[in-house]
TrEMBL record:
It comes from Kribbella steppae. This is ATP adenylyltransferase. The active site is at residue 171. One of its GO terms (molecular function) is nucleotide binding. A motif (Histidine triad motif) lies at residues 169-173.
Length: 210
């Protein structure tokens, strides 16, 4: 009997330690090293995984304030005291600043934040309202210049019940959108692919700020 062209002869087949742990089993095909390395945590399968361990920081509440008080315990109070590059601040206005979201929904996801520690939009002064509005408009212009965004989701989550991650310090989200940006990755795999590091995004937006 001749060997199948897709199947090596007995002399050519790996054996013992030379054979991948998944190979040769009736329930498992030859598997890439990356998949074989996961053996022991479940039944091996042919799917590759895109691991995003940085999201665990968000899930576990890293950097989330433990109280509603102003001061160093609040990230939005602390960031203006750092250099722009370290804080991922894109632009500073007289009453508010624009900063990249550390856990972006899309590339270029900014937040416009008043310097003053205030929770509710109705508590902002006229100057703060004007500056938040101006920075929001400028954010859109900068993002369009850099990436040609087709549209935006803009808004605030007021209060924990409304989904605010840091409810005690008001912040407005500016999320760029593109046609087709909701593809199979977030829809099926609940994974967002971000093609650029945050410091690089900050530098581009800061350079293009109107």
């Amino acid at each position: 009997m001749t060997d199948s062209p897709d199947q090596p002869s007995g002399a050519d087949q790996p054996s013992g330690a030379d054979q991948p742990s998944g190979a040769g089993r009736p329930d498992s095909p030859y598997l890439p090293d990356e998949v074989v390395a996961q053996e022991g945590v479940g039944v091996p399968d042919p799917f590759m995984r895109l691991w995003t361990p940085h999201r665990m920081a968000y899930i576990e509440g890293e950097n989330k304030p433990t109280s509603d008080e102003a001061g160093s315990g609040c990230p939005f109070c602390r960031l203006p005291g750092l250099p722009d590059a370290d804080a991922l601040i894109v632009h500073r206005g007289p009453a508010a600043y624009a900063v990249l979201n550390l856990y972006p929904y899309n590339p270029g996801h900014l937040m416009v934040v008043p310097y003053r520690h205030v929770a509710d939009y109705t508590e902002l002064t006229e100057e703060e309202v004007a500056d938040v509005a101006a920075l929001t408009r400028q954010s859109m212009q900068a993002i369009r210049t850099v990436s040609g965004a087709h549209g935006f989701n803009i808004g605030m989550n007021q209060g924990v019940i409304a989904g605010a991650g840091i409810a005690a310090h008001l912040h407005q989200h500016v999320v760029p959108r593109w046609s087709g940006d909701t593809n199979f990755m977030p829809a099926i795999a609940h994974t967002k692919v971000l093609p650029q590091l945050l410091p690089d995004t900050r530098a581009l937006l800061a350079k293009s700020w109107p």
